[in-house]
TrEMBL record:
Molecular function per GO: ATP binding; ATP hydrolysis activity; rRNA binding; tRNA binding
Organism of derivation: Pseudidiomarina aestuarii
Annotated family: Belongs to the ABC transporter superfamily. ABCF family. Translational throttle EttA subfamily.
Keyword Transport: no
Protein name (database record): Energy-dependent translational throttle protein EttA
Lineage: Bacteria, Pseudomonadati, Pseudomonadota, Gammaproteobacteria, Alteromonadales
UniProt keyword Transmembrane present: no
GO BP field: negative regulation of translational elongation; translation
């Protein structure tokens, strides 16, 4: 197994005598794990095409062997054919051009950069580049656009659109789905519902399906009411003849008629009232190993603003956040927060949680009552505001999906009750319903 892509990489599966190469990209923030942190970027990427590069080297040896006096031409010709088949299948004669083109399109950092100094987005792009260059028969991509900037996403969309193999992607990115997907598979209440088309066309037909479900639900409620009236008024002497109707009544009330379980709300606790001064940045400068990330940056954030920070991966977006929170110091310049400002920060990595805790323990620290700003709230009620209700609060952190981990992360860090929120890639791993809920919560945040 290859540890580069969250312990998965490219695997070969066999079914009915057919061998299929499957490339897996997981959504975890540990995309490039500890074993690769000291490696150079080029060596990490080139491992994806090691089979082709080895075949090219062996082919050169075969050509040289033809010139030897005792050459076995039949054996050499057979070996040559085998090697050329490998090279042709992977377009190996263009391998160097492919490497440079992919690196340029994904705008990877210089080849001699060590993995440990890369940002989360840069590591993600290295992992994607490595996986795509391996050209497996099938790509399984879990949240492939996480940590990618707009230009990298555009290149990935074009690459996948033209990809000769099969692509299956789990993604919250509605624009990505619209531009790439030819089929949508919705998983709903234990069923898989396929739809041919992109996200927009699926959304239209889903709306029609939900309207039909609502009509069916109203009809079911009418039937329950009628059956309930019948049950209450049915004479005891006719009970033997009423078993079928009793069974029908029980069926109508059974768990077979499940309601939709969508995330319809998220709660961002309000902080203290803000004064006129919120955030002022003056002539900020920051560099790493001689590489200037931020140079003479000045701006101010007014009260009530919602500000989006955009830029390519590695441009210093997360570094700017760390300087605002005081985790890092600028080389020069100042960051000034208003006297009434209380920060609440959510970073792009979700690794500061105890995998053995359950959801409630992680969010509440085991306290029945937690304090948020100037008021107190029942900790289980607070967890419920992030759509962890009932038994969901007993789920173990190490067994959560990426979206569930993100909701725990949000609940845990936002309980500080800040009035200035710093959200670094807050939508990573969120499903579409939770994403909508987060958008609404941010718009309603006081």
């Amino acid at each position: 197994p290859n540890p580069l892509v969250a312990g998965r990489g490219v695997e070969k599966l066999k079914a009915a005598g057919i061998s299929v190469e499957v490339g897996v990209l997981e959504s975890a923030a540990r995309t490039l794990n500890c074993g690769f942190r000291s490696r150079m970027e080029r060596g990490t990427v080139e491992e994806a095409v090691s089979e082709v590069k080895n075949a090219l080297a062996e082919l050169d040896q075969v050509y040289a062997a033809y010139a030897e006096e005792d050459a076995d031409f039949d054996a050499l010709a057979k070996k040559q054919g085998q090697l050329e088949a490998i090279i042709q299948a992977k377009d190996g004669h263009n391998i160097e051009n492919m490497l440079e083109r992919a690196a340029d399109s994904l705008r990877l950092p210089p080849w001699d950069t060590k993995i440990k100094v890369l940002s989360g987005g840069e590591r993600r792009r290295v992992a994607i580049c490595r996986l795509l260059l391996s050209k497996p028969d099938m790509l399984l991509l879990d949240e492939p656009t996480n940590h990618l900037d707009a230009e990298s996403v555009a290149w990935l969309e074009r690459f996948l659109h033209d990809y000769e193999g099969t692509v299956v992607a789990i993604t919250h990115d509605r624009y990505f789905l619209d531009n790439v997907a030819g089929w949508i598979l919705e998983l709903d209440r234990g069923y898989g519902i396929p739809w041919e088309g992109n996200y927009s066309s699926w959304l239209e037909q889903k709306e029609k399906r939900l309207e039909q479900e609502e009509k069916g639900e109203r009809a079911r409620q009418r039937s329950i009411k009628q059956e309930l009236e019948w049950v209450r008024t049915n004479p005891k002497g006719r009970q033997a003849k009423s078993k079928a109707r009793m069974a029908r009544f029980e069926e109508l009330q059974s768990g077979d008629y499940q309601k939709r379980n969508e995330t319809n709300e998220l709660f961002i606790p309000p902080g203290p009232r803000l004064g006129d001064k919120v955030l002022e940045v003056n002539h900020l400068k920051k560099a790493y190993d001689g590489r200037v990330l931020i140079d003479d940056l000045s701006f101010s954030v007014p009260k009530g603003a919602i500000v989006g920070i955009i830029g390519p991966n590695g441009a210093g977006k997360s570094t700017l956040f760390r300087m605002i929170t005081g985790q890092e110091q600028p080389d020069s310049g100042t960051v000034e927060l208003g006297d009434t400002v209380q920060l609440a920060s959510v970073d792009q990595f979700r690794d500061n949680m105890d995998a053995k805790n359950n959801v409630w323990q992680e969010i509440s620290d085991g306290q029945d009552i937690i304090r948020i700003g100037n008021f107190e709230i029942n900790s289980r009620a607070y967890a419920g505001r992030f759509n962890f209700r009932g038994n969901d609060q007993q789920k173990i952190i190490g067994e959560l999906s990426g979206g569930e981990r993100n909701r725990v992360h949000l609940a845990k860090l936002l309980k500080a009750g800040g009035n200035l929120l710093l959200l670094d890639e807050p939508t990573n791993d969120l499903d579409v319903e939770t994403l909508r809920a987060l958008e609404e919560a941010l718009l309603e945040f006081p």
